[in-house]
UniProtKB/TrEMBL annotation:
Originating organism: Christiangramia sabulilitoris
EC numbers on record: 4.1.1.23
Key words of the record: Decarboxylase, Lyase, Pyrimidine biosynthesis
Protein name: Orotidine-5'-phosphate decarboxylase
GO terms under biological process: 'de novo' pyrimidine nucleobase biosynthetic process; 'de novo' UMP biosynthetic process
Name of the encoding gene: pyrF
Top-level EC class: lyase
InterPro entries referenced in this protein's UniProt entry, alphabetically: Aldolase_TIM, OMPdecase_type-2, OMPdeCOase_dom, RibuloseP-bd_barrel
Length: 272
């Protein structure tokens, strides 16, 4: 899916919501554990209840890796289900990969070719040759970690590197990489006040913004500093939606939470 196609979906659905599928067997409704594939059963129910209100899903790959081969099968089934039933949905592999070139190339093949994701999150610490193998897939997006929502982000990301903080140097440097027009960036909602500076460096690129909801980030603040005329935002919510209830009608309640966020986003879009 191209950025233009994603933007069209945003305006069509009046939403820039990304639902995180951080599916944890210890948190899903217990009755699902008797299912043959409880992870996929949970994901399918969440997707069916929320797809009208979001434009993207973001499985956090660690939750699938943690349960071994069954987890990978559930992940593949989830992406295949999205492709067959809701092909307009954008998919993000939240894998945070990044390694020497030939290894990154294999990661890219795994997530783009085998699993069929539209994009993947990538850690830039190893530099250009660890990221460009993902960017070689010109019909896919690479989402670079820039300024994350966790407390430890201040350990390194905001340290000064000359006149600028490290995260700004990462963003500025990445603009010179091969096919950099296919870069998106992770910027945490809990760092909304930094978005104005980030937009001065990358005024048009999409930003994936986690941290709204359970982590306390403000949607209004994110939009105040980060939204563009083409929106340019994917705001992720995971736990606040998918774990809103552990009752038998968990999916219905998740759908209501997603709809509430979509309504807030529609109000922000009306301001453009």
């Amino acid at each position: 899916m191209t950025s233009q196609e994603l933007t069209e979906q945003i305006f069509k659905k009046r939403s820039f919501l990304c639902v995180g599928l951080d599916t944890d067997l210890e948190k899903i409704p217990t009755y699902l554990l008797s299912e043959k594939d409880p992870v996929f059963s949970f994901n399918k129910a969440i997707i069916d209840a929320t797809h009208k209100y979001c434009v993207a899903y973001k499985p956090n790959i660690a939750f699938y890796e943690a349960i071994g081969a069954d987890g990978w099968k559930a992940l593949k089934k989830t992406i295949d289900y999205l492709h067959s039933e809701y092909p307009e949905i954008y998919t993000i592999a939240d894998a945070k990969r990044g390694d020497i070139g030939n290894t990154s190339r294999m990661y890219a093949k795994a997530f783009f070719e085998d699993l069929g994701f539209d994009s993947i999150t990538v850690a830039p610490y190893m530099g250009k040759d660890s990221v460009e193998p993902f960017l070689e897939f010109t019909n896919k997006h690479t989402i670079l970690l820039a300024l994350t929502s966790n407390e430890g982000a201040f350990d390194f990301q905001t340290l000064k590197n000359g006149e600028d903080e490290l995260y700004k140097k990462v963003i500025e440097t990445s603009k010179g990489w091969q096919n950099s027009e296919n870069l998106m960036y992770v910027v945490g909602a809990t760092k909304a006040e930094y978005l104005a500076d980030i937009r001065r460096i990358i005024p048009e690129n999409f930003l994936l913004v986690p941290g709204v909801g359970a982590q306390g980030g403000s949607l209004e603040e994110v939009c105040k500093y980060g939204i563009t005329k083409n929106v340019g935002l994917l705001v992720n919510s995971s736990r606040k939606i998918i774990y809103a209830s552990d009752s038998s009608n968990f999916a219905e309640i998740a759908g209501a939470k997603a709809e509430a966020m979509q309504n807030q986003m529609a109000e922000e879009l009306d301001k453009l």
